[in-house]
Amino acid sequence: MHQAAPGFKCRRKSRFSHVLLAFAFEHIVMSTVGVPPTRVIGVVGELMRSIGTEGLVAGQVVDICSEGLSDVGLEHLEFIHLHKTAELLEAAVVLGAILGGGSHKEVEKDQLSGFDPKKVAPLIASANYIANRQN
Predict the structure, then answer these.
(1) Which residues sit opposite 5 in a β-bridge?
(2) Is residue 96 part of a domain?
(3) For the chain, what is the mean pLDDT?
(4) Which of 11, 58, 100, 120 is the most buried (most CB within 10 A)?
């Protein structure tokens, strides 16, 4: 076990992604120039929403709890990827729109309100292949 702090034992080593996530907030606040403070605060709020309990964290919890399971279905994988990968990709677009001066309406348009099944069919096929392949 990894000793994170005196008296605290963690079964998993801290991931570098956690460091990067904390750095993202620092970088946004300390390095963003030429952007009104209200937009910077909006970006921080949107990033917090995207990584919160209904975003990245939800997907990460399900992902970690799924490690070692042999029977993980497509719906399970979709949940993980919608809450991790898709949430962060959406956040990148939305944060750029906010920082770039997009209107409230333009920013909302950049947020995903669901996927077009025809457009994501190749992704679903890939996820299904990965889930069902014999390693």
Answers:
(1) 8
(2) yes
(3) 79
(4) 58
